[in-house]
Amino acid sequence: MYLWKRSPLIVLLFLFCGLWSQAAFASDDLLSHASWTVIGSPENVSLRIVQAAGLPGGALEEMQVVVKAAVKPFYGAQITAPLAQAPKAGDRIRYRFWGRAASGNPIRAVVEMQSDPWTSLVGERVVLTPQWKEFVMSGEVGSELNSPLAARFQVGEQAGTLEFAGVRVEDLGPDPAMAAAERAAAPQAVAARIRRYRMGTLTVQVKDAKGKAVKNARVKMHMKRHAFLFGSNIFELRPEDNSPDQIRYRTQFANLFNYATLPFYWGSFESSKGQPTYERLDAMADWCLAHRITPKGHPLVWHEVYPSWAPAEPDATVPLLHARATDIVSHYQSRIHYWDVINEATAAQYYSPANGESRWIVRDGAPSVVETALGWARKAGAGVPETFLYNDYNTGPANVALLSQMQKDKALPDAIGVQSHMHEGVWPMAKVWNVCDTFAQFGRPLHFTETTVLSAAKTNGGWAPATVETEKAQADYVEKFYSLLFSHPSLRAITWWDFSDVGAWQNAPAGLIRKDMTPKPAYDRLLKLIKHDWWTDASGASDKGGQYSAQAFYGDYTVTATVGGRSVTSKVWFPEGAGRKTVTLTLR
After folding, report:
1. What pLDDT shows up at residue 146?
2. pLDDT higher than 70, residue 249
3. CA atoms of 270 and 263, how far apart (whole Å)
4. pLDDT above 50 for 262
5. 536-581 tens-digit pLDDT
6. Who contacts 543 (Cβ-Cβ below 8 Å, separation ≥6)?
7. The pairing of beta strand 259-263 with beta strand 229-233
8. How would residue 143 be classed by pLDDT, with cut points 50, 70 and 90?
9. Residue pLDDT, tens place only, 51-109
10. Closest CA to 25 of 144, 217, 167, 204
C-alpha cells in the first residue's frame, strides 16, 4: 500500500500539471505564469524549458526533466510550481497535457498544500510512453480551499528523460452533479432514504392451536443482528491470547460489528513456499463464527505483499496463483463466503519493483486478469453461496473502464469493493455520494471495503498527538459518512480500517479504539447508530385479526407472542430489501 494511491480526495479527480509558456495559457488556466523548480533532489534532477517546433497540441515550448537515478521514496524528486489562483468549491476542472519518455517512466502528478501537513487534494499515476501521448482528466472541487496550493510532478521512480508539452488546466465552472450530490447528502434526505431502503414492515400473526387469530397477545420483536454488514479488518485478533488488551480488543469488536476482514496476503500467509499458515487463519475464522461475525478473506490475488520466493515472470506465477486461490477458497468453503478476490489491478502497471503478478496484469490487461481470478474463485466455491469482490482504491476513469469492459464481457464481480482511505483529509459528502453513484451504475452491490478516518492530524514527520477536538472531529465525520452510505440503496457493507491504533497501516491514528484498547468517540458514535438508532426492539398487542406490525430494520430477529401463561418464540430472518414479511406464531 503506497502513499501515492491513498489520497483523501477532497476532489473527485483533480490533477494539475503546468506549461510555463505564457502563449500556451488561456485566461482560465490555473497555472498561468507558473515558475517551475526542482525540490527534494536538486542534485539528481535537472529541469530546462526549451522552444521547439512541431510539438503536439500546438505547444510552443516543452519542459525537459532529466532524472539521473531513481530515488526512494519516488516523491523525493519533484518538479513543482505554485498555482496562480485556486479553483472554487463545486467547480469542474479539466486538465490535459502531452508527455513522453523514451524509457517509459511512471510519474505521479499531484496538487497539494504547500505547507505542513502537505494535504494532497488528489494524485494520479500515469506512465509516459516513448511516443507523445495526451492525458485528459476531469473532476470536481469538493470544498473551499483555505491554503496555497502547488502543482507537482513526482518523478523519482525511474531514471530517464521526461518531456511535457501543451499542458492546460481549465476551470469549467460549477458542476450540476455536485449540487445534486449536496442535496442527496442533506440530513433529511439521508434519513428518508434510510427509512426507505433499510427498513420494512415486519408482521407477526398470532394464532391458537385451532388456527384462529388471537387478539391482545403481547408481541415482542427483538433484533439480534443487522442484515447490512458493519465491519472492520481484524488483523490484530489472537484468539489464543487471553491478555487483558486482547480480551478488550475482542470484546469491543464483537460488541459493535457483525463483519470482519481476515488477512490472506500471499507474502505473509505463505512466507515460505508450500507452507501456508492455515492454523492462524482457521482460529480467526472460527472465533468470528462463534461470535456471529461474518468473516471475509482479503485478498487472494494482489501484486503487493508478494512472497520473496515467488517467481518474477507471469508464466511461472499464474499457475501458483491459480492453485492458491483454489486451495484457500476450497479450504474455507464452509466458513468464509465473502472474498476480495483481486486487489487494485488498475495500479499494477505502476508497481515497482515489478513481479510475476504485476507483469501478468501488464501483459494480459487488467480486465482479463480480474476475470480469470474471479473464475478461479467461482469454480472453487461452486455449490455454496459466495460473494466474490473486485477491490480497488481507484474511484476514477481507470476503474470505470475496467468494470465497463467486464460488463461487456458479462463477467462482473458479485460485488464492487471501494476503498476510502482518508489519511490526508476527509472526502466531502458530495464526493462520497458521487462515488457511490459512479459504481452503482454497474448494477452490483457496493462494499466500502477499506475506510479510514483519522483521529489526529498528519504532520511532515508523521502524526500529531490526538486531542479531544481531533477525536471529536473524527466522530462527527464518521457519523455523517456512515449515515450517507447506509442510505444509499446499492451499499451492502462498510469495513473500517484499522480497528485499533495498534498495528494500523502507516502507524496512523486510524483506529476506532486507542492503543490501550479504550474506545474513541467515533466508536461510541457508531455503537449508538448501529445498535440504537438503526436497531429495532418493538412490542405491542395483536389486533382483532391477531396481527402486530412494526417498521423494522432488516436483519435477524427473535419474535415472541404471549397470552396468559402461554408463550411461543421463533427466530426470524428479515432479508435486505424484503419490504414486507409476515411470520406466524401458534400458541398451543
Report:
1. 66
2. yes
3. 12
4. yes
5. 999 999 999 999 999 999 999 999 999 988 999 999 999 999 999 9
6. 215
7. parallel
8. low
9. 999 999 888 999 999 999 999 888 899 988 887 877 777 777 777 889 999 999 998 88
10. 167
Cα 106–108–113 angle (5° rounding)? 165
Question: Which element (helix H / strand E) includes 261?
Answer: strand 259-263
Name residue 539's beta-bridge partners: 220
User: What's the angle, vertex CA 38, arms to CA 35 and CA 42, rounded to 5?
Assistant: 150
Q: What is the DSSP string of 489-546?
A: TTEEEEEES-SBSTT-GGG-S--SB-TTSPBPHHHHHHHHIIIIIT--EEEEE--TTS
C-alpha cell at position 559: 419474535
b/e per residue 332-356 (b: at least 16 CB within 10 A): beeebbbbbbbbbbbbbbbbeebbb
- DSSP assignment letter at 82: E
pLDDT: which is higher, 511 or 152: 511
List, as one string, the DSSP characters of 262-293.
EE--HHHHTSSTT---HHHHHHHHHHHHHTT-
CB neighbour list of residue 239: distance below 8 Å, 6 or more residues apart: 250, 283, 284, 286, 287
Spatial contact of 303 and 344, defined as CB atoms under 8 Å apart: yes
Which H or E run includes 195? helix 187-198
Q: What are the two backbone dihedrals, phi and then psi, of residue 197, each rounded to the nearest 5 degrees?
A: -100, -20
Residue 587 vs residue 17, higher pLDDT:
587
Q: What residue has cell string 499542458?
A: 167
Q: Tell me which of 172 and 307 has the higher pLDDT.
A: 307
List for the chain the helix, strand, coil content (%; round to 5): 30, 35, 40
From the list 518, 519, 500, the residue with the least C-alpha distance to 509 is 500
d(CA 297, CA 2): 21
How many Å apart are CA 107 and CA 123, to the nearest integer? Answer: 10
Helices vs. strands in the chain: H and E counts, helices first: 12, 27
Residue type at 284 in one-letter notation = M
pTM of the full structure: 0.83
Q: List the one residue out of 53, 153, 157 whose CA is nearest residue 97.
A: 153
Q: Which residues pair with 136 in a beta bridge?
A: 96
C-alpha cell at 551: 417498521
Is there a contact between 478 and 527 (Cβ–Cβ < 8 Å)? no
Q: CA 276 to CA 266: how far, in whole Å? A: 9
* 540: exposed, middle or buried (Cβ count in 10 Å: 0-12, 13-18, 19+): middle
Element (H, E) at 108: strand 106-113
